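---------- Forwarded message ----------

FYI, see the MBL fold metallo-hydrolase record below. Original note from H. follows.
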Amino acid sequence: MTYSGEVSVGGPADVHELKDLMITKVAVGPMDNNAYLLRCRATDEQLLIDAANDAHTLLGTIGDDGIASVVTTHRHGDHWQALAEVVAATGARTHAGRHDAEGIPVPTDVLVDDGDTIRVGQVELTARHLVGHTPGSIVLVYDDPHGHPHVFTGDCLFPGGVGNTFKDPEAFASLIHDVETKVFDTLPDETWVYPGHGNDTTLGAERPHLPQWRARGW
């Protein structure tokens, strides 16, 4: 089946099958959070992005093979409600942005900085630190050698705009700058965007609207 990225809480997961990586997207919790399970096809090692809520659903998605790592994209509580239970069940190592780790009540094993590499089996993800939604938000870029890049943006970029900066002009200026310079300026239009809530998009679909976002201030 063709991957659409359209999932709903209580509904089935959607699976994006790439040559080297399988990406399973599932929606969980009262805030309709997306969690992404990445599986290296060569080694079967797995990594979870955002143990957001509903540990039962997440552990069922993970299955008997377990996970090696969990990456939390940022400190906001809706993105780590199931983290303690998932880690207890799997023994996974925890990763989070250096400047957000103190706001996550599960100890962070690996503090992530801009440009760091996080591996899942033979697949490499590059972390980019974006400031504005939170001080330490990170996005993960998978530059597929067989196709276009894929970026997991947490709450920093959605269809239609950047993440919430809570009516703080300085935070918005920081986030739009980082999104432009570290995401749009470095990745092509074909890049697939997997956000922390809602449907997927591409950089090409969003790029024409960047001036509008800057003008409106959110």
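H. also flagged this: The helical segments are 55-62, 83-90, 169-184, 203-206, 210-216.
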